[in-house]
Amino acid sequence: MSMFLDTAKIKVKAGNGGDGMVAFRREKYVPNGGPWGGDGGRGGNVVFVVDEGLRTLMDFRYNRHFKAQSGEKGMTKGMHGRGAEDLIVHVPQGTTVRDAETGKVLTDLIENGQKFVVAHGGRGGRGNIRFATPKNPAPEISENGEPGQERELQLELKILADVGLVGFPSVGKSTLLSVITSAKPKIGAYHFTTIVPNLGMVRTQSGESFAVADLPGLIEGASQGVGLGTQFLRHIERTRVILHVIDMSASEGRDPYEDYLAINKELESYNLRLMERPQIIVANKMDMPESAENLKVFKEKLVANYDEFDELPQIFPISSLTKQGLSTLLDATAELLDKTPEFLLYDESEMEEEEAYYGFDEDAPAFEISRDDDAAWVLSGDKLEKLFTMTNFDREEAVMKFARQLRGMGVDEALRARGAKDGDLVRIGKFEFEFVD
After folding, report:
1. Is 168 within any annotated ligand binding site?
2. Are strands 7-13 and 150-157 parallel, antiparallel or unpaired?
3. pLDDT tens for each residue of 421-432
4. pLDDT tens digits, one per residue of 199-232
5. Which residues pair with 282 in a beta bridge?
6. Residue 320 in marked binding region
7. Strand pairing class (163-166; 241-247)
8. Is 170 annotated as a binding residue?
9. What is its EC number (predicted)?
10. What is the reported pTM?
11. Is 296 labelled as part of a ligand binding site?
12. Residue 194: CB partners within 8 Å, gap ≥ 6?
């Protein structure tokens, strides 16, 4: 069984804020001591940190739930509760994080040590010392802590390589990688010997160096799920240059030019932007008897079918077995890399705007009204539900404050406009109360 894992779906839950406290100062020589309840502490964030020592998402195969600690409750003597420490989750370089519900990209983690907060902890609730006013110098009001952010995430690992080797199975990609780098990929005389991406570092004779990824062989229909290629095509997205390896000996009985067209079609079908990457055609197995003639025919077909305004890709005849032509190929690849910029993987429409503060969305409606099967009115909405969660219903003053907040938000008027009558049942989550007109 392969231990390489490049996708995972997990759930993260930031810590809730600690509850504020209701307390009063009672000391022998301090008359009219007043409120003395402190605020709750902040809940812990869930933070992703890039660890260059990790190579796969295997750690997320068996551990799919990550929950940060909640903040401590407020204490007497006006003391704040302790804030919770952030939960640090290590991920490999090249991890893309998406919101599983919206599909939006939250971040692309590519630098060692890079950090990103994927779930924000809730703020602590205020103690009654915060609610003292000249009109109410001894309030019995406190807030519960704000709930921490909770979300489901889709993780995708796209390996960091400057150059990607693509081509049909058994065209010699793994052999080429083993010759030009110190990598030791599995090599066999059968299809799909390579079942996971292999990575190696190349150093040219002129001193240039770059990373090369050998990707599992593609076949026709890979972008629609045929063969192994579909699950590894994502790793080509980070590469800046593609080395298109072709078996010029036609040992499998296929036409090399048809192979070239078929693989490009799969790359285009998977992601149209992959065709923006410059390609170098690697005519492999030139030590075989028929290769020279096949290469001549290949070049004729390429020229005949290429647009006169487009630049023809470079073709380098090589033999991985005899190491013929390798230094020329590597020098040309390094030269092409130097003048090829990084490609943006995601545009703004795919990226989710980072919230400066985890709180209410000002553009979202404050509440929504619907009707349940038992004729009860149901109130919902992020702002209203968060206010409800942060209300301490054990204190009568807090309940009255929540009622005033609902009235100020226009809930009473909206219910009347929808036809609510005195005595109708109103529901917020599992909490129920009667509507009083």
Report:
1. yes
2. antiparallel
3. 999 999 999 899
4. 899 999 888 999 999 887 676 554 454 444 556 6
5. 245, 316
6. yes
7. parallel
8. yes
9. 3.6.5.-
10. 0.84
11. no
12. 173, 174, 185, 186, 214, 215, 216, 217
